[in-house]
Amino acid sequence: MAIKIGILGAASYVAGELIKILLLHPQTEITYLESETFAGQNITLAHSFLRGLCNLSCEKYNKDAVLSRCELLFICKSHGESMGYVVDLQDSNLRIVDLSADFRLKDAQIYQKWYGKNHLLPQALAHAVYGLAEINSGQIKQTSLIANPGCYPTSVILACAPLIQAGVVNSQAIAVNAFSGLSGAGKTPKAGFNLFIDAFANIKPYRAGAHAHQPEIEQELQNFSQQKVQVSFIPHIVPIERGIISNIVLNANRTLSNEQIAEIYQEFYAGQPFIQIYHPPQMPQISDVAGTNFCALGWYYDQRTNLLTVISMLDNVLKGAAGQAVQCMNIMYDFPQTLGLPWGKLL
Asked: How many other CB atoms sit within 10 Å of the CB of residue 330?
C-alpha cells in the first residue's frame, strides 16, 4: 500500500522537484499539498511543468487534514517557519522530513546566533536525525523527525568525513570555496542572487565566514574528529541553473598517494549508490551530476605543499534537497535507497 504523502510549502522550487519525484515513486501517493499563496488553486499554477502530471489543488494549512490524510509530511518552508508546524504536530504519529534548517543544529543557542530566532522546540533538537543517508542511515530508519541537510554542507561533509575519520588531514584548518547555481536562492526574486541582471556573466562571493551553513558543517564533521573542527567557508553564486561545486583544501598530516586516498573513500562509501569517486587525473563536472541524486568526488594531492584539494559536486535541488529527502524516506520505510530517484536527467 502506497505511503500517503503531504507537502507543506508546495509552491516552492524544491517542492516542485519533490512532487516530480514522488509522482514517479512506486510506493507513494501525494494526498495533501499546502500553500498559503496558491490555496484553492491547482498546483500547476505554481509549477507549470506538472501540467498533465498532477491535478491536485493546494490548500491552506489544516492540522486535522494533515493528520487524517498523511503518514509522512515533507516541510518545504523557510528557516524559522518550519518549526512552528512541527510544534503543532509534535504529539502525533506523523513522520516528518523538514527541508529547512530548523532542526539541523543541535544547540538552540547556536541556532539563535546564526538564524536570529529563538527556537520554538529546543527539546526536539536532540532526537531529530541529520538526514545524510550515507552517514546516518541507521538513525534515519528509526526516527520520526528528519532534519534534511543543507546543500552546501552535504557536498562538504561527504567530501571530508572519510579523510577526517582516517586521520590523514588536519581538521582544524579546512578551507572551502563553494559555488552554487541560482536555484539555491529559491523562486522568490532576490537582488544580487537570482535576478538575471545580477547573475548573468558574473560570479559573486557572499557571506564569507557568516553563512549559516558553516556551523552545520562543523557540527557534523566533529563526529569524525578527535580534534576541534574549524572550517573557513566562502560561498559563491554562479550563473547556472543548478549544481554545487565545493573546492575544499585540507592539510595532509602525512605524505599520501592517490591509491591511499582512493582506498579511504572506497572503504567509507562501500555499497553507497549515490557516491561517485573520480580517480586522478579525472575530475567531476556539473554536467555529471545535474538532474541526478549523485555526489561526485575527485581530488588533487600536491606533494610539494602537502595540500589535498577535494572537489565535490552535486545537484543542489536533488542531492542537496528534494532527492536527499526522498532518499531518507526510502530508508525510513526500508525501501532501496535508489527507489524512485533519477539516475539521469529529469525529463
From this structure: 22
CB 89 within 8 A of CB 67: yes
Choose among 137, 132, 161, 159: nearest CA to 148: 132
DSSP letters, 165-189, are HHT-B-TT-EEEEEEE-GGGG-SS-
Q: What pLDDT score does 193 carry?
A: 64
198 and 51 in a common domain: no
User: What's the average model confidence in pLDDT over 131-146?
Assistant: 97
- Between the two ends of the chain, the Cα-to-Cα distance in Å is 27
- Rounded CA gap, 15 and 46, in Å? 10
At 244, give phi and psi (nearest 5°).
-130, 135
Q: Is 151 a catalytic residue?
A: yes
The whole-angstrom separation of Cα 339 and Cα 87 is 30
Same domain flag for 127 and 181: no
pLDDT digit string, tens, across residues 80-90 = 999 999 999 99
pLDDT tens figures, 240-253 = 889 999 999 999 99
Q: To which H or E segment does residue 21 belong? A: helix 13-24
Catalytic residue among 151, 160, 295, 328: 151
pTM for the full predicted model: 0.95
Query: Are 185 and 291 members of one domain?
Result: yes
Task: Note whether 95 and 185 are same-domain residues.
Answer: no
For residue 235, pLDDT over 80 is answered with yes
Residue 154 in contact with residue 319, Cβ under 8 Å? yes
Do 137 and 15 share a structural domain?
yes
In 3D space, the residue among 102, 99, 96, 130 whose CA is nearest the CA of residue 6 turns out to be 96
Taking the C-alpha atoms of residue 260 and residue 266, their distance in angstroms, rounded to an integer, is 10
Quickly state the pLDDT bin for 347 (edges 50, 70, 90): very low
* Nearest of 18, 49, 51, 53 to residue 34 by alpha carbon: 18
Question: H helices of 203-321, where?
Answer: 213-221, 258-268, 286-289
Question: Phi/psi at 13 (nearest 5 deg)?
Answer: -60, -50
